[in-house]
Amino acid sequence: MSGHSKWDTIKHKKAINDAKKGKEFSKLSVQITHAARQGGGDPGMNPNLRLYIDKARDASFPMDRIEKAIEKGVGGADSGIVFEEASYEGFGPGGIQLIVDTISDNKNRTVSELRQIFDQVGGNIGAAGSVSWNFETKGYVVVKSGHMEKAEKFGAEDTFVADDSDDVMMMLMDIPGILDIEEIDMDGVKGFEIYTEYNQLAQVRDSISKLGFVLKEAEIVKEPKIYKKLEGEELEKAQNAIERLEEYEDVQNVWTDLDY
User: Fold this and answer.
1) What is the tens place of the pLDDT at every residue in 48-62?
2) Residues 164, 244: one domain?
3) How many domains would you assign to the chain?
């Protein structure tokens, strides 16, 4: 990955989002509802839902709101709302390339408001294919080098137990569909950043889950083939533009060729 660790970016975004809990919670609620609608409301049978629930818990998202979001997805309150996924391509300050992934219950509203944000930050939405040629779509997984042991006492939290990273690496290398594995530091705990073929993500994720290791991320990512470097005021404007797009509640991910 030549120094471009996505895990470092995720940690950076989490630090920003910690100061914006309201919008973060809103996005988590939509993700949980969407996952439940697609794969059912049982996290034991729906890995995507399980992953979003874990993310919600990490963000201190209230359990009653998690349950309401699941209920909404499987046919409870407001079950008539339909969420749709869509991606938009464009350019930002300094000519940076941007792909914006959204989940929305009103695509016309979303694209209209995205156009306004692009205009306000000094960019513009482009046609399909205008920047996607420079991005590779892959599966991305982050796993801690360890497993969780169930608490003996009811109501107590499970305990993370670190495993030998060399042994974990060997077990991961036996999983079909993995393109690349890199050992990373996760706040003092060893872990692995894993890339897969985009259509092998679910299979790899489920194989890792069956081995009992702790999954922290599992998603489709869009990585630039060529990065763009900016400096000074141009860099600041580009970073501000990306943050403005990420703050919009219908936006789930912003992919860019900007080299941080």
Assistant:
1) 788 788 888 877 888
2) no
3) 3
